[in-house]
Each structure stands twice: as structure tokens, then as C-alpha cells.
Amino acid sequence: MSSFVTCCGPAAGRIICTSACVDEGAAWLANHDPAFARALAQCGPLPLRRKPDGFGQLLSAIVSQQVSVASANAIWQRLTEAQLTTPSQIMAATEDDLRSAGLSRQKIRYSIALAQEAIDFEALRDLPTQEVITVLTKVTGVGVWTAEIYAMFSLGRADVFAPGDLALQEAAKALFDLPERPKERELRQLAEAWSPWRSVAARILWAYYHVAKDREGIR
Which fold has domain 19-50+159-213? Predict the structure, then answer.
């Protein structure tokens, strides 16, 4: 059964599949740390942010690497219009086709590597999160951030975080009044206190980033 509709599993752990799951996590975090309660008071209800799983979503995550939300949305729209969002379409395309849709030379290489990998995306649904990240990061161009974002949104894992995300780092600095933006390792350690709802903590921080900076933190 798809993890998109299943809220728990023996290996996958708790799955966020409805807004009620997000609300439950937000309430836990607000009770756990008053900083989250303050953030929620400013941000309002959090979005579910669940997405389907599969090749297209991981390709979309690659598109989002190191570009603004607006740029990523524009490139993804062009790929969709050009029908370049499946493994067979990527493999059949020329580099000029992919470049015309907005992919950089590096992301063309990553997209082709992903198409060639032939990942069993259904099997990922039942794996522990760390194993999911291990499988995905074997693909050229899929780093830990991309794998964590996929686990968070496409697989709905409730207890995964993406400390390499700059928006999360900036939001954490502002919310917790840190002297400087935390590095990935420092933020990963900080986030351990937010388990078992680290994915919801990320949603709060992205929402807080949007309020504090008036910018979107994630697609």
C-alpha cells in the first residue's frame, strides 16, 4: 500500500498523510519548545506539503537544487510542457532538448544519471529513512539534502530533517536568536531535540522564514 495513504509502518515509522498529522506534530513541538509556539502564532496553520513519490518528484528536487523557488517552478513548467519528466523521456532527449527546457549542464548529467539508475520507488516506501537516503544518494547529483526532501515530502516521513537547507538555517538563527546562521552539523544536532516530529519542525521553520524574510523557503 502506498505510504501516501498509510500513516505508519514497521520500518518506515510514522508517516505524515493528512493535515491532522501535521497539527499533531505542531502541537507537540509547541509544548516542547516555546519558540515553536511563538512561530506558529505568527505563521498560522501549516501546509501539509505531501507530494506523490516516484521519478518525477526526485527529478523535481534536482531541479530545485541551488536555485530560487521561482526559478525552479519556471524550469519545471518548461520540462513538463516539453514532456521531459519520465525516465524514458529523459533518455530519449538530446542535451539541447534538456538545455532548452532550462537545465544546466550539471543538472542534465544528474537527470540522465537518475533515469539510468532505475530506482524501485515503490520499494522505498517500506524502507527505514536512513536506508532511503543511502539508496538515493548513490545516484550522481542526489545529495543528502535532495534525499531528505524526498523522504520528507514524497514519502511523508515524520522524523526527517534537512539541516543543509539555507532557509532552515536562516529561520533557526532568527527564531532561536542564534549569534550566526548554524552550519549543517550544528543544526542537525539542534534538531535531534525535535524528534519524533522533525519534519513538522522543518515545516514550521520554512513558514517562519516566509514570514520573517517575505520569501518562500521551499517548493
Answer: Endonuclease Iii, domain 2 (1.10.1670)
